[in-house]
Amino acid sequence: MLSVPVFNMQGTKLGSVEVDEAQLGGRVRPELLKQAVVAYQDHQRQGSARTKSRAMVEGSTRKLYRQKGTGNARAGMLRTPVRKGGGRAFAKMRPPSVKEFPKKMRRAARNSAILAKMQANEFVLVDGLRCAEPKTKVFAAMLSALKADNGCLVAMHERDPNVYKSGRNIADADLRMVDEVTAYELLRRPRVIFTKGALERVLGKAK
Question: What is the pLDDT, as a whole number, of residue 205?
Answer without folding.
Answer: 60
